[in-house]
Amino acid sequence: MSADKGGSLKDILNGRPGKTDPAVPEDEEEKELRQDVGPCGWVWAKGCKALDIERGGKEPVVSLQYVYLGVLSEFSPGKFWVLFVGLQSWKVTVEGRNLRPLYDRLNDHCLRRIRQADRDFGGEEGKPFVTKIEVTDVTPRERE
After folding, report:
1. Domain membership flag for residue 6
2. Digitized pLDDT (tens) for each residue of the chain, 144 residues in all
3. Based on the structure, what is the number of domains in the chain?
4. Fewest CB atoms within 10 A around its CB: which of 60, 68, 104, 144?
């Protein structure tokens, strides 16, 4: 981390110095296709096959395939949710600020990774900032 109090937002989100940043395209053409949505999301305009969800701490990274993205999702300021429907169904609920770009890119199948900040310290002005992500099993159960 930097010498100032607590380090930069990027240092805090990425952890200790030298931690590997997420894999990014090396090709110049693909670099141009990336979109900046702040420290809580990685977007490739070309489209993705899966969404990685990082909730931090001891929570494992969860990956969901876009082919299972449901037809219904809902956005309201400060919160959105989407469904992934297959043999098992999952509801992903995201809370934070300035979330519309993440919601739009997710529905475009272009959001590759979404990350929950470990604490709320403001973030970059106008950029999406994720304070909470819940992944809930909503698979219909047979009635007994």
Report:
1. no
2. 444 445 565 555 555 444 444 454 455 555 555 556 666 676 766 678 999 999 988 889 999 999 999 999 999 999 999 999 999 999 999 999 999 999 999 999 989 999 998 877 766 678 899 999 999 999 998 876
3. 1
4. 144
> Is position 88 within any domain?
yes
Rounded Cα distance between 21 and 39, Å, is: 11
Say which residues have a Cβ less than 8 Å from residue 139's Cβ, sequence separation at least 6: 87, 88, 89
Q: Per the structure block, which two tokens stand in for 6?
A: 């607590």
pTM value? 0.71
The residue behind tokens 């992500």 is: 133
Structural domain including 35 reads 29-137
